[in-house]
């Protein structure tokens, strides 16, 4: 072998090594998101800056149109936020714009996924590892006498990622291509996520969990004609929910009762000093902030200034220490205006339509269901939280959706090639 050929092989080996390191870092950060908020958010920042360098390496394929669309819309969210915060003078505030760098995460992720073939076994292993981390958080809380995933650092995002990844594991259980032992492990992983979901006491997450189970059960019962399979899986699911509910019945009852009392106090007794009451007051502030500057919003500083002004005039009872609107759409409108809302709506519309188109094919059906689960989950979580404006949940959303878009696109491309090859082969 010539010296030039040897050098080429060595260069190729180094390129493969760097791509594998990039993929490993993505997996590591994804798992860490489920374990500890503080270091994982720092690691997300590193991914934004490091992974795009992999675009300097030769790609195995060009980006699919679906990947380009995802990248375009996520970059649109970033530049919309950049313009709004620059105009409002809030760009260099430490807690203002920093989270929105995560909108650029798909740029680096696609540098990895355009250079590897995503494997469902690899994805299943990462999801199971992430669910194991949620169990670690719960056990740490129990040992220290804490609650709600305090050892994670952010209880509400902890509940969000626990449920969402748990549902993805649950969908993977239905993949008959996996060995039965792997499917059992996936079911156990999903159960870990559901335990963490109950433990987090995040009511918005509970609402989505119930909605997902209801819609999934009805859709499956309607579409799948294999009655024995439906009965078995739905029975197991119902049993798991009952067991989880009974094991934490006091906590669940207390949180539901707190919700009903908060609604009664706000609408009947005119008392806004409850968790839900404060959310309603913050929504009023966010709407007022938006109406004062509808195109670009007023940044976080503008939201806080409006709240203080309304508080001084007695127009709101929102606590001065609360930092955001507790609603994704209203937060986007108040801080970034209609410009960013266009990209926000377009991103969700693209993801939902993309995954819906791939639900009819056996090789992409479960991945498409997972994509829809994450997409609709983001919308529901965003009703009471700033899901797509918080650093850790932006990072989680972008990683999962970029993986699923790339995986589904790769499967669809492979299917098209096989179809074309079959059509071109001579008939004997």
Automatic annotation (TrEMBL):
InterPro entries: O-antigen_ligase-rel_domated, WaaL-like. It is a multi-pass membrane protein. It is found in: Membrane. Keywords: Membrane, Transmembrane, Transmembrane helix. Pfam families: Wzy_C. Its main location: membrane. Residues 189-345 form the O-antigen ligase-related domain. The chain crosses the membrane at residues 17-35, 70-88, 123-142, 154-173, 180-199, 205-223, 232-254, 329-354, 366-384, 390-408. One of its GO terms (cellular component) is membrane. This is O-antigen ligase-related domain-containing protein. It comes from Bacterioplanes sanyensis. The lineage of its organism: Bacteria, Pseudomonadati, Pseudomonadota, Gammaproteobacteria, Oceanospirillales.
